[in-house]
Amino acid sequence: MPQDQLRPKCLEGSQSVSLPKGATVFRAGDPCRNFYLIESGSVRVDLMNSEGKSILLYRIGANETCVLTTSCLLSHESYSAEAVTESDVTALVIPANEFQARIASSEQFREIVFRSFSSRLTRLMAKVDEVSFASLNSRLAKRLLELAGERDFVETTHERLAQDLGSAREVIGRKLTDWEKQGLIARHRGSIDILSRPALTVLCGQRD
């Protein structure tokens, strides 16, 4: 069955758009003009400082919405972060004025928006807790295992790990060098081999 026939009635008539990997969805300071519901692919949302350094706030995947977009639409404020596609993405797009009309008239649409908003906000608070209280060792080990999934390697860079964890590339590099000396990992250009998954799992439980 075509995907548009599976959409809830409240989403009928929404425009579907495609974005290539690496496309900027919005930047800090941009007005919020559209509501997005991701159908496929992944978008990362980063908070940037005045020096150009960034930290990953969250990712948006299939059947998810952006908590920052919802907040901006409801408060009529501009974006305070940047969103970039991590892969080819398809999404339903609803203009801001139509979003307001559907929020006011459709109970089903309100349920979709606020259920996703609540779920994302809960995960964002967990992220704040992790950054505030978990050790960098714990967060780095957890991120490597997340990226690896069932595989024994990770395709990433020191810079990307630093952005994901809100740290400096040099700090991440020192941690990885120590782990390599201990036999936990092996580093290659653009990738990291996981040599001791149990050891990294133990590190995930460390707190400051």
Structure description:
- The protein is an alpha+beta fold and about 210 residues long.
- The chain contains seven helices and ten strands.
- The protein has helices at about 65-75, 95-105, 105-135, 135-150, 160-165, 170-180, 195-205; strands at about 15-20, 25, 35-40, 45-50, 55-60, 80-85, 90-95, 155, 185-190, 190-195.
- The strands form three sheets. Strands 2-6-4-5 form a four-stranded antiparallel sheet. A three-stranded antiparallel sheet has the order 1-7-3.
- Strand 4 and strand 5 form a beta hairpin.
- Helix 4 (about 135-150) crosses helix 7.
- The mean pLDDT is about 90.
Q: Helix/strand-derived class?
A: alpha+beta
Provide a count of the helices. Answer: 7
Radius of gyration: 19 Å
What average pLDDT do the residues reach? 88
The shape, in one word, is elongated
SSE order, as H and E? EEEEEHEEHHHEHHEEH
Distance between the termini: 51 Å
Tally of DSSP β-strands: 10
Q: Beta-strand level of the residues, as a percent range?
A: 15-25%
Helical content class: 40-55%
Strand numbers in spatial order across the main sheet = 2-6-4-5
Low-confidence stretches: none
Let me know the largest β-sheet.
Answer: 4 strands, antiparallel
Q: What is the gist of this entry?
A:
It is built from seven helices and ten strands.
SSE blueprint:
Blueprint: E1 15-19, E2 24-26, E3 34-40, E4 43-48, E5 54-60, H1 67-75, E6 82-85, E7 89-95, H2 96-105, H3 107-133, H4 136-148, E8 153-154, H5 158-165, H6 169-181, E9 185-188, E10 191-194, H7 197-203
Antiparallel strand pairs: 1-7, 2-6, 3-7, 4-5, 4-6, 8-10, 9-10
Helix pairs in contact: 2-3, 4-7, 5-6
